[in-house]
Amino acid sequence: MSSEIPMRVAVVGATGFQGGAVARLLAERHHRVRTLTRRPEADRPPLPGAFFLAGDLGVPGDVRRLFAGATHAFVTMPLVYDETRVEAYARNIAEAALAAGTSRLVFNANTRLPLGPTDVAAFETRRLAERVLRDSGVPLVVVRPPVYLDNLFSPWNGPALVDDGVLAYPLPESARTAWLSHRGLAEAALAALTREGLEGRTFDIGGDRALTGRELAAAFGRGLGRAVRYEELDPAVFERGLAQLLGPETAAGVAGIYHYMASGADPLLMADDDGVSSEVLGLEPAPVEEWVARQPWQVWSTDAEEPDASPRP
Q1: Collapsing DSSP states into helix, strand and coil, what is residue 6?
Q2: Where would one find the signal peptide in this protein (predicted)?
Q3: Helices 83-100 & 60-67 angle (0-180, nearest 10)
Q4: Is the pTM of this model over 0.70?
Q5: Alpha-carbon distance values, 236 to 111, 114, 239, 248, 260 (Å)
Q6: For residue range 71-98, what is the model confidence (pLDDT) as tens digits?
Q7: Homologous superfamily, domain 149-178+208-271+286-300
């Protein structure tokens, strides 16, 4: 179907950064967006054009209310890495989508997935959710992103970048990585929702421009107009810092991806997609330096007021 034909889209995860970017793009394109949230009204992010339903993914009736009348759906799981809970969420979503007659569901796996099983909860819970959704028979398209550029516009990266020209991140310098913005995810999601003949397919999105840490720093330097150097951050240090914001359980789940990458077990896991998703989904992510140049980095200067320290999962 054309992306111009109005859809009624149930967006799971719209109060987060990834789902929120998708909800905003859908609303901009005049599609009707509904989302489920446990947040009180005063704590909900601004999503013009989106309708909030109070509820919980763990309650089947709440999820059925979200999907009632939905022609399409986009799903990003919350930062939960307990298999029992994730499986229950996925089953509730699948049953609600089938009951509503949803014509396509796009599942954002949050990350690329290794080919074989691992002991990393961030991979295996998303693999489990994919399997539940696929086995249910719901018309499914899966997108698996690499690493988000927006992770670098954060309280633990911004000040060092702006003040010292240091880009520290818990990926090996040598790991070739396809960096994607949340807006790029949203564009991939819209294409996955609307392009014909994609049911049953899985896409490693991110484009065909994989960068080493040094190349990433050079791109940031061009965008910022200053010298930038890359520093490998110890994943354990990253996890401890994240735990102060998200709690130890969630931090361990997120950091598991970086511990795995640091092990060298699959150095190309986050690399380019050989142009497959770019061709089929019609995507061409902007160069990193263009994304960098558009961000208001001055908010992270030590001379600026203290910014919002909300995490960007």
Answers
A1: coil
A2: none
A3: 40
A4: yes
A5: 19, 21, 5, 12, 12
A6: 999 999 999 999 999 999 999 999 999 9
A7: NAD(P)-binding Rossmann-like Domain (3.40.50.720)
